[in-house]
Amino acid sequence: MGPVKVLTVNPGSGSLRLHVVRTEDEHVLDAVEIGKPADEADGEIESFVDRVGELDAVAHRLVHGGRDLDSPTVVTPAVRTRIADVRSLAPEHIPHTEAMLDKLTERLPGLPHVVCPDTAFHRGLPEVARTYPLPEAWRARWDLRRYGFHGLSYQWASRRAAELLERPAGDLNLLIAHLSGGCSVSAVARGRTVDTSMGFTPLEGTMMTKRSGAVDPGMLLWLLREGHLTVGELEDGLYHRSGLLGLSGTSDDTRELVRQARDGDVAARFALAVFEHRARRELAAVAASLDSVDALVFTGDIGWDQPEIAEAVAGGLGVLGISGGLDAGRDRDAVISDPAASIPVLTVRSREELSLAHAAETIA
Ligand SMILES: Nc1ncnc2c1ncn2[C@@H]1O[C@H](COP(=O)(O)OP(=O)(O)O)[C@@H](O)[C@H]1O
Ligand SMILES: CC(=O)OP(=O)(O)O
Ligand SMILES: [Mg+2]
C-alpha cells in the first residue's frame, strides 16, 4: 500500500476544521477552517472535498463516546445508533458530528469512516477518579460517571512532551492544560490519565470561553426550584453565555481580552484573572493524583497563542514547584521555561488532526 491519505473532520462547538493528512510523514496536504457549524456549511464542505482528490479513509472526531464507544471504530448502522444515544450528553458537538457523517458517508461512500472518541484516551481513568458520589441506583441505571474529554489533544501533547524532553512517555508524569474554546486539564502518569477536570459532559471543570465549568450544583437546583430560570435558559446560559464572555460582557476571545485589559478595561482584566485562577485550581487538584510532576504542558488555541495566560497560570503554581518567567515566543513546540527551572513548562500546538489520522490509519 502507498502513502495513506486521511480526511479528518473536527466539528468544534463553534467551528468546523477539515484537514487532509498524509500519515507517513504527518504532512497536512490541505486544510480549511470554517467558522460556522456543519449544517450551515454545505458549499464550503463540498468544494473542499472536490479539490482534495483520492482519499483512503475519513476520521471523524466524536466528542463523547459514551459507555460503549471507547476506542476508534468504523461507522456502521449500529455505531450510528450508539452515537444518537449519547447526543444529549454533548449537545454542542454531537449533532455536528452526525451532520458530517450524514454528508460525508453519502459523498464518499466507498471509504471507511472512522469515529474517534475524545473520551477514549481517558478510558483507563482510575475508579476513584471516575466515580461520582451519587446513589448506587442512579449510577447503575444511567451510567453516571466521569469520562474526560479532549483526549485526541492529550494524546498528541503527551507524545510531543516526551519528544521535547527526550524521555520515554512511559516514564513521565505530566500536567497538561488544554485551553481553547472548551478547556480542560489532565494529569497523565506514564501515558495514562489519572485525573481530568471534565466529567460526564464537557461542561465540568475549569472555566471556558463561553462555558461556565464547575459551579455549585446546589445553586443550579435553587435557580430551577425557585422558578428563576427554565431548564432551557439554564442550559443556554451555562453553555453559551458564561465563561470569559459572561464575565467580560464583551468577548470570548483571550486575544481581544488581553488587549482590552492592557488598555485598562477592568472587566476584561477580571475575566482573565478568574480564568487563570480556575485553571490553576484545577491543575493543582489533578496534580494530587501524581507522585511528582515532570512537566507542565500548555496546549489548545489559548495554551498555544496566549503567552500571558500561560505565564499567569504557571507563575501562580509555586506551591507545585512550578514557576513563571516563560519565553513568550510561539513559533514551534518548545520548552518555554528557564533551563534552570525545577519543573519544565512546555507549549505544544494542538494537532487533533494528526491523532485522528493515525487512529483511522490503524483501524481502517
Ligand atoms: N487565544 C485564542 N486563540 C484562538 N481562539 C480563541 C482564543 N481565545 C478564545 N478563542 C475562541 O476559541 C474558539 C475556538 O473554539 P472551538 O471552535 O470550540 O474550537 P476548539 O475545538 O479549539 O475548542 C474561537 O472561536 C475563539 O473565539
Ligand atoms: C470537549 C470540548 O469541549 O471540545 P471543544 O473544545 O472542541 O469545544
Ligand atoms: Mg476543539
TrEMBL record:
Q: Which GO terms describe its cellular component?
A: cytoplasm
Q: What class of enzyme is it?
A: transferase
Would I find Nucleotidyltransferase among this entry's keywords? no
Query: Which cofactors does this protein require?
Result: Mg(2+); Mn(2+)
Question: What is this protein called in UniProt?
Answer: Acetate kinase
Catalytic activity entry? acetate + ATP = acetyl phosphate + ADP
Cofactor binding, note field? Mg(2+). Can also accept Mn(2+).
Q: Which residues bind Mg(2+)?
A: 352
What family does the entry list? Belongs to the acetokinase family.
Biological classification of the source: Bacteria, Bacillati, Actinomycetota, Actinomycetes, Pseudonocardiales
Which keywords accompany this UniProt record? ATP-binding, Cytoplasm, Kinase, Magnesium, Metal-binding, Nucleotide-binding, Transferase
User: What's a Gene Ontology MF term here?
Assistant: magnesium ion binding
- Pathways per UniProt: Metabolic intermediate biosynthesis; acetyl-CoA biosynthesis; acetyl-CoA from acetate: step 1/2
Known EC number = 2.7.2.1
What biological function has been recorded for the protein in this entry?
Catalyzes the formation of acetyl phosphate from acetate and ATP. Can also catalyze the reverse reaction.
For the keyword ATP-binding, the answer is yes
